[in-house]
Amino acid sequence: MSVARWAESVLLQLPMRVGLGGLFVFAAFTKLSNVQAFAFAIKGFKVLDPDQHGHLIISAAYTIPWVEMIAGVLLILGIRTKAATLALGLMLVVFIGALLYVIYSPTVEADCSCFGDMNIVCGSTVGWCQVIRDLIMLLPVGYLLWRGGGNLSFDALFDKKDGVEKAIEGSNQSQIVDEAGIRA
Amino acid sequence: MKCIQTIAGVLAIVGLGYIAGVGQSLLRDRPIVLGSGSSGPKSGTETPTDTDLLPPDSGTDSLSESGVNDPNTPSDPEFNARLDAPVPDGMLTLRRAHQMWIEGAYFIDSRHKFEYDAGHISGAAHLTAETFFSDEGEAEIQTIPPDAPVVIYCLGGDQCDASENTKALLEQSGFSDLSIMGVGYDEWQAAGLPIDSNADGSDAGESP
User: Is B203 left (phi over 0), alpha (psi -120 to 50) or beta?
Assistant: First the structure.
């Protein structure tokens, strides 16, 4: 295991995981503490008609914060890093889509409620600032999807064990190649 | 293979989130309200004439103590035009809202906290969906009798969901006499009607 890989893990992957995961856990916490307000916020985006699809708004209001919370915790700990990162990345893409929908609707003016009633970097009203903020958050998402959680993650612990077992069994060629690549 | 594992992981996370959300919704003691539909002009069930039936002696609270600050002569045509500016169906005109203010109706500001702090209708309380379940929100609600006339306002127009949301929450809490001011705070201020601001803590009471 090379020094470069440890350095990458300490300097890039761990801060990215804790930063991104922490941000989502915090966002989830603010929403979970007032699901009612978040339901109003989703209604405010006017993507769904509350008279016809009110049930979808309500289930989204309950589900989205919990997905953020679970994926955020998994990301911080580095358990199933790629799955957690992909989940957060897909949510960011959906959020960006919703933000663009609001920005390009001349009649809709909505509050982001991204972090409940708290404003981080951007103001409360939906605008390009939130889109840029979400796009910036997609950068670590892309990096983590590409490189994985790094050495300082539970994944690395489990993978190493798996790798050794599989190497012993000799059943998984690619894993052995992977391990060899890591040692090199 | 790794790719399929990742996708399976994403689905597992979403599924767990959904189950957790279902669990939370079962534990919640009051259902989520969404209020009325938000697209297009609403056909309100209540008309401004409903509120004309208010008893004139309904103003027994502290709101009316600050006195009526009649800023203009009623004959001023520009002032009258402001008071009678058209509002969406089922909402109060500025004239009616001001009359209710004189009569001592409770006013609720459903805009953002910073907007409220910068200036609000004199005597109005701040209450939004965000603060509704907080301690200060609960305290505000406690001060209002359930059958007292309540006027909710925000930035105005039919795009102002915040008033509808606060109204839906108050309805759920058992308040019966709720109206929404069709025009926003800016119109109230522009007409020179009484306002407060938290910035200096005193009654701004701007007169034109």
Answer: beta
